């Protein structure tokens, strides 16, 4: 009798343990942390860097090398907690990017819901980058095809610290995006930032418009736009260093439209730097692009940008053309080859494709890049 009761007791315990393990597995399935990344490297040839041609090993030609962690936890009722920590680095020498930060590309935590949208807090991309980044041709070609000096920051020259961002749910194809970056100092006007925009997706159409404003950018290391992660001194135009800007404003609108195997794109962005010494430095970028799937694995793309530059009575312009091929070896690995050409007006004096190590000694510069990218 006692032996029979003991067997029943063991069976009950084993059933309880098994049920507990099943429940634990179900709960675990509601939470996840994903490790991901991109490694990208190649060789770049430039016909003129300060009067000399150059062959260089270059990393991050198509996509900046990175590794990151993306986490989510299902809180029930359609509500989730999320986080992302993303490190950027130079694949050629292993050095950390974004001013040496451990998670310089992105670092945020937030909550999201299907009907409520997403609220995130931390180091993030602004609304212009979120909405217009997918339209610019550099999203398909190498990053050298971005607008001169990345003056509109669509190629992510800098991110926004201390940021609170809200992205609405998509309703009838429309989605709004709002962000505010705190200065973390007394007052609200010193090194803070805000941006707003709207995107629309319907069938083959992807369109958007956005605005971003940075007050006293790079005036401190702790503000929304940190002094160690703003424009480099190489971005000087007409002898003016962008770090001396008291305010930067970026605005733009664009769209892509898919027709069969082809995708057409149009984009306009404007950038206005109010300078500490007085006056303003202004850029206007007009871009047209074409992407075409020759086969499911082979993609061709081309883009042209006309950029107007003005400061006071001085003005100039850039013409920039880019084209390339991308071949998908698998879902995660591709090879690419791109060519780029830039011509600057005589008033500007020197061509300088963004991302090339040094300017040309003349008003034109030509570059070719080939490489390999793998995602994990």
- Proportion of residues in β-strands: over 45%
Residue stretches low in confidence (pLDDT < 50, at least 5 long) are 1-29
Can you name the CATH architecture? Beta Barrel
* Broad structural category: mainly beta
Return Rg in Å.
24 Å
Determine the CATH topology. Answer: Porin
Protein name: Porin domain-containing protein
Membrane topology: Multi-pass membrane protein
InterPro entries: Gram-neg_bact_OMP (IPR050298), Gram_neg_porin_domain (IPR033900), Porin_dom_sf (IPR023614), Porin_Gram-ve (IPR001702), Porin_Neis (IPR002299)
Domain Porin: 21-343
Structural write-up:
This protein has 376 residues and is mostly beta strands. The protein has one domain (36-375): Porin (Beta Barrel). The protein is 9% helix and 53% strand. It has a 16-stranded antiparallel β-barrel with strand order 1-3-4-5-6-7-8-9-10-11-12-13-14-15-16-17. A hairpin with a 2-residue loop joins β3 (66-76) and β4. 38% of the residues are buried. Residues 1-29 form the signal peptide. InterPro entries: Gram-neg_bact_OMP, Gram_neg_porin_domain, Porin_dom_sf, Porin_Gram-ve, Porin_Neis. Keywords: Cell outer membrane, Ion transport, Membrane, Porin, Signal, Transmembrane, Transmembrane beta strand, Transport. Residues 21-343 form the Porin domain.
């Amino acid at each position: 009798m006692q032996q029979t009761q003991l067997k029943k007791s063991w069976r009950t315990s084993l059933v309880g343990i098994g049920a507990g393990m099943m429940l634990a597995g179900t709960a675990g399935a509601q939470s996840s942390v994903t490790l991901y990344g991109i490694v990208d490297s190649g060789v770049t040839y430039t016909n003129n860097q300060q009067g000399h041609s150059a062959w260089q090993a270059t990393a991050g030609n198509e996509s900046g090398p990175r590794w990151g962690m993306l986490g989510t936890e299902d809180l029930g009722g359609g509500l989730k907690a999320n986080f992302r920590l993303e490190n950027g680095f130079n694949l050629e020498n292993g050095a950390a990017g974004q001013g040496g930060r451990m998670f310089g590309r992105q670092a945020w935590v937030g909550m999201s819901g299907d009907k409520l949208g997403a609220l995130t807090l931390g180091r993030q991309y602004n609304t212009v980058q979120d909405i217009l980044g997918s339209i610019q041709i550099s999203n398909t070609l190498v990053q050298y095809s971005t607008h001169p000096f990345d003056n509109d920051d669509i190629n992510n020259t800098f991110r926004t610290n201390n940021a609170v961002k809200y992205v609405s749910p998509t309703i009838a194809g429309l989605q709004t995006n709002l962000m505010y970056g705190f200065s973390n100092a007394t007052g609200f006007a010193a090194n803070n930032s805000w941006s707003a925009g709207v995107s629309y997706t319907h069938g083959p159409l992807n369109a958007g418009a956005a605005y971003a404003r940075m007050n006293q950018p790079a005036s401190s290391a702790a503000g929304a736009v940190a002094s160690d992660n703003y424009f480099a001194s190489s971005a000087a135009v007409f002898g003016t260093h962008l770090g001396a800007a008291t305010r930067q404003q970026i605005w733009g609108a664009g769209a892509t439209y898919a027709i069969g195997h082809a995708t057409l794109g149009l984009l306009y962005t404007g950038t206005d730097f109010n300078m500490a010494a007085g006056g303003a430095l202004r850029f206007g970028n007009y871009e047209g692009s074409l992407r075409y799937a020759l086969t499911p694995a082979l993609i061709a793309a081309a883009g042209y940008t006309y950029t107007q530059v003005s400061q006071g009575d001085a003005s100039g312009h850039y013409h920039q053309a880019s084209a390339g091929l991308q071949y998908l070896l698998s879902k995660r690995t591709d090879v690419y080859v791109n060519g780029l050409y830039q011509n600057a007006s005589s008033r500007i004096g020197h061509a300088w494709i963004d991302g090339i190590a040094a300017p040309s000694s003349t008003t034109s510069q030509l570059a070719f890049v080939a490489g390999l990218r793998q995602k994990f």
